[in-house]
Amino acid sequence: MSLVDTITAWYTTHMNYTSIVALMTIESSFIPFPSEVVIPPAAYVAGNPDSVLCATGNYPIDVLLIVLAGTVGAMLGAIINYLLSMWLGRLVIYRFADSKLGHLCLLSSEKVQKAEQYFNDHGKVSTFVGRFIPGIRQLISIPAGLAKMHFGYFLFYTFLGAFIWNVVLAVLGYVAHGQADLISTYSHELSIILIALFGVAVLYIVIKQIVKRRRATNDQSQITNHK
What we know:
This protein is mainly alpha-helical. The protein has one domain (3-226). 74% of the residues lie in helices and 0% in strands. It has ten helices and no strands. The chain has helices at 3-13, 17-28, 39-47, 63-97, 100-104, 109-122, 126-129, 141-146, 151-175, 180-226. Helix 3 packs across helix 9 (151-175), helix 4 packs across helix 6 and helix 9 packs across helix 10. The radius of gyration is 21 Å and the shape is flat.
């Protein structure tokens, strides 16, 4: 039995807000752990308290509080990555990524470099969009810390991305009956859809601003010509 399977089995009998925060903190830090085995089963249990996933002795849980607990955990893990990266610096982070312990955490300098390149290419908003991208989600806080991104912006974008992602996982958990395989498959597809929708929204805002500026310029030109 793998470590993830062991933790998942423990979680099934200890499903509460504290364990959700703890596991999502781990998931959002540099320690690899899938969020698909935390939020979806809890959401399914909340909607189906008599299901077999609901272990005897668990306290009743609410879907909204599950999402909030998961978001708090995700933010705590992201803050850990951010602060460690900011304090330790690029050299130490890259050395750790290529160390034996780093490899045990499924890290490598290539993965960190990929996350850093993504952050450099997309700026602050990458800490929001990156929450939906597998392989980037857990690491996007590292380049944010290395770049010493404004902490307020970092918290805002991280909260927004984590909250939306946890809502998606909660919905998937209820629909897919908490089955990890189905959830993992569809979560990747939904990641692409969410990123595409975000891109469309940004494109719409940009086009709208361009049209608005052109109209303002044309109006100003007409006023000038009339004079």
